[in-house]
Amino acid sequence: MSISAADVNKLRQMTGAGMMDCKKALTETNGDFEAAIDFLRKKGQKVSAARADNATAEGMVAVKVSADGKNAKLLAFACETDPVSKVDDFRNLGQAILDVAVAKNPSTKEDLLALSLADGRVVNDAIVELTGKIGEKIIIHTYENFSAEKVVPYIHSNGKLGVLVALKGVNGADVTEVGKDVAMQIAAMKPVAVDKNDVDPTMIEREIEIGKEQARAEGKPEAMLEKIALGKLNKFYKDSTLLNQEFVKDNSKTIAQLLDAHTKGLTVTAFKRIQIG
Question: Is the pTM of this model over 0.85?
């Protein structure tokens, strides 16, 4: 019988198996989805569906920066348990996926999943295959393709937290160390945005409303609530936006002041903070 692309895709969504495997399973079972699932189970590929709702709170974060320092690929490759995150097959596949990301420069995680590894396997199929072999859910948690005048990476010592910082105004200076300091700041302090103007308006509205309710609960007059809430909002900006945060290694200066003191005009334009677990 003829197997449609829609049927193949449906089975893939149900099981997480590769497109060719799904097509073969449906062909072998004359389009019977339940029988096709059983067919895949015999190959170890039903595991993806069986564990689809399981948390992937362990894994590895890896990064590769281009030779000119202007582009970085960051991959968070996740699994369910810490022992699996240390298995060679898991770590080798994670590295192979990062390698193909560097070689092929995909823009999105979806694009990356569709690429072929050096051994010819499609990335998504290789993940499903390892899922069947190991017996727990494995996913690409996050993929970032990050470009800037200068990109500085940081991977935390546990290998499960990574940061990328985009710098501009480098002016030929060596900004590696100060960039790493900023990346470590981001890892530790979890800013929500680079600067005040970058904060999501919805978040600002929420902070103002929280400030008003706090002031109201303290018995402040209604006429004063807006002013008090705006004061609390300024404190929020200081605590939660990167350039306005106090530098954790020297709280006499902000991150903005740290960067400008290193190289006049040096600043951060964007950052990514990725954590597994």
Answer: no
